Amino acid sequence: MPISLNTRRWCALTYIGLCIGYAIMVVWVLPWWTPIVTTLAWLAVGYHFHWGHPSQRATKRKAWPWSLVPLILWWVYIYLDDSFGQLDLGAVIFHLQAGIEENGSTDRQIAGVIYTVAAIVMLMAVTWLVRADHRWRLWERVLSLFLLAFNPLLFGLSLRGASVIDDDEAWLNDRYRPPEIVAAPRRPPNLIYLYMESTERTYSDTRRFGDAYEDLAQLGKEGVVFQGVQQLDNTGWTMAGMVASQCGVPLMPAGLMHDNQFEPLSDVLPGVNCLGDLLHERGYDLTYMGGASTKFAGKAKFYRGHGFDTVLGRDELEGKAPAGYLNDWGLYDDTLFGLAEKRIRQLHASDKPYAFFGLTLAAHPPFGHPSQSCIDNQGPFDGTDILYSVKCTGWLVKNFVERLRAEGLLDNTLVVVASDHLSMKNSAWEDLIAEDRENTLMMLGNGLRPRVIEQPASMVDVLPTLLEAMGYTIPDHRAGLGVSLLSAKPTLVERHSLEEMNQRMRSENVLQERLWNGVN
């Protein structure tokens, strides 16, 4: 039986209303019932104005809406916003160029398929409405301009494009200090740097997040805790957080500077020296170890290109994991820490100073991948509570550090425990964005006196702080764009504000050219 015109009319209007309501809910982080209320309001207006009624059809000509492409771009933006919480155009550009193969975001891939189907159905509904109602044939042309003008995805591109006519495109580069060591301690210390995936210090607020951060808070009492470490643009994903903390610069994507636009980058930031380069020159044995593939987002290229001797990820380590004990990304953190402990014993037994860098993945949004050992310790995981996964990360990190200390493996060693970046969208998102947020950064051992240092800063300040914590002398307490938080000098964020730093980055070209000098 053919579907009646009236049924098609209300199905099309209802579906469009649900899509509008869903977009409003995602963009403004509103309650689940937002699409329902929006749809009812939309249908009420449609009923009042007789949208799609047979009396409004002026011609049978099958016109195509002008708004189809603008609507597609909005669907792309909403998908990215729903996936990550806040659109970071730099992250999108970088991952497309550095490589997105072997990522573990199965849930977002499934969501991508669902979004695609939903978008196609909406485009069909809009096309029907435009053809059924001559007024919409006129209105949607104006709507197209509105959709293009206010799409944050295009707004970000326009801001970056405006840099070509900016009068001060070297502001950041003028403040960049190439990392340099001018004096070293008599006995160079070892370094263990643990990046905790998305485990920001914001979780330490017990009023909002309970005891999720308890183990990390206890660990922080043994060393220096840095408060006020904010997130600059282009430092808000794993590879960018690593670059900021090790190179003292934000990871500004290569963009159009990359000659072969449709091929993966050959190198990651070949134009600057980073921590690995400095330590390699001083004879350090450098190791990176993570549970996920090092092919994803150019991690292997970055570490191997900046002095690291050993780079290990899923491909190299999964054979050492218990049979079948893997998640979408790779190794669970308890497996990783067991292997890391063995590696550190080997490094400790050698005569060379060493630096070990590890990356957890338990708290990876949206829900996390807690290890079996955490489930044994914390009880059953409901599959969605990111706070459970955050607590798992803290518990594993604290136990790992304590085991190393008990074995005497932390003598003459600086331990850095830090988040790689602020979390992207997860099950605690509304509470996370309710107030100001900041990254985790704490340093233990190597003679550091336990205390709290509170200062407006960003992850680019980690590099000079870490070098001074290791006992190295650097010019004017500076390296890259960073300033040592162990000194009395103000940071760039402190002097100019986070907002101005981000604005300057959008119009910066010269530092970007420096970072990617030599890339193919």
TrEMBL record:
Sulfatase N-terminal domain ranges (all copies): 189-472
InterPro entries reported for this sequence: Alkaline_phosphatase_core_sf (IPR017850), OpgB/LTA_synthase_biosynth (IPR050448), Sulfatase_N (IPR000917)
Residues that span the membrane, as ranges: 12-30, 36-51, 63-80, 110-130, 142-159
Name by which UniProt lists this protein: Phosphatidylglycerol--membrane-oligosaccharide glycerophosphotransferase
Protein topology in the membrane: Multi-pass membrane protein
GO molecular function term, any single one: transferase activity
GO terms under cellular component: plasma membrane
Main location: membrane
Entry keywords, A to Z: Cell membrane, Membrane, Transferase, Transmembrane, Transmembrane helix
Locations listed in the record: Cell membrane
Organism, scientific name: Salinicola socius
One Pfam family linked to the record: Sulfatase
Keyword Transferase annotated: yes
Organism superkingdom: Bacteria
